[in-house]
Design a protein that fits this description.
Elements lengths: L3 E7 L5 H10 L6 E6 L14 E4 L5 H8 L4 E6 L9 H15 L3 E7 L4 H17 L3 E6 L1 E2 L3 H11 L1 E4 L5 E5 L1 H13 L6 E5 L4 E3 H12 L4 E4 L2 H10 L4 H16 L10 E2 L8 H7 L1 H10 L18
Parallel strand pairs: 1-2, 1-4, 2-3, 4-5, 5-6, 6-10, 7-9, 8-12, 10-13
Antiparallel strand pairs: 9-11
Helix pairs in contact: 1-6, 2-3, 3-4, 5-11, 7-10, 8-9
Length: 314
Amino acid sequence: MPLSICLCIVTAAPGAADRRVGELLLGPGASSLIAESRRTDNVVALHAQRPEIRDADFADAASLDDALAGVNRLLIVPTHRADVAANHPHRLRAVLAAAVRVGVRHIVYPVAAVAPTHLERQQVASRRLIEQSGLPYTVLRVGCLSDYLLHRIPIALRSGGWPTSAAEGVGTFISREEATHAVAAALHSNAPSVGLVGVQGSQALSAQALVDTVKQVFGAHIELEPVDDDALLDGFTSAGVDALTATELVAVDRAMRVGSLDVGSGRSSCLQLGPVASVRDFLAHRRLDILLASKHGWPGVGLFSTTAASLQFP
């Protein structure tokens, strides 16, 4: 049977994330890509690459059935925005019901191993809904994103300090681009994966190891500064980091401290990726941009606007 993949964006907001997944899914192996969203302008940037774009209303079961008709595999991209997260369970429930009605054969749902508390609760509830649907599914639990460091390092280069609440904890790091490729690979895979699958880097780093890596790449003098979560949050916001991003950065240190970034340990299998860039290589590739950001800040609005378009997880 020809492979028909649907990218379903369960959010009211457009993003480069969704477009990047669509670009990868338009590669070899897919005979049809259906980009579905509450608003078709969310994915209109894919139009030049000729996917089929279908309009749908999450409150209209018939329109969801029409949007998912003929779909074999369904990627559901959850929202990470607090202002629309309240509607996420309702929308997810509606999409899953439609997927059951039209005979979707597999669902892929990416979640973040690092998330603020309210999004962690949403992830647990979402996985429960997916399990209850009875459809084969793969939940991709993505480890710590190297991209988070792009907010921390300019601050450290200016101040000479690396405040952290990670204690002796460690984390493995993977870039958003690599995580996005993992999502596309899961959709194209013929393996009957069901359950939780970890996506992570190969190198476990402590906060001190991260600081040592930054010092090597930038030739800077930076000292580790142990603090608690509240002080860390205050430090980020005082440095000009927006509240949402500051909360996510604190969540990274908290996850390292409690050990939840070992995404393949005991709770899931791990997706075998190709070579994953080390944190050192990731930073070296972006060294000039980070140095400029330490002087002038990141241009534009939104997370990591100067890096390659990539997937935003919840």
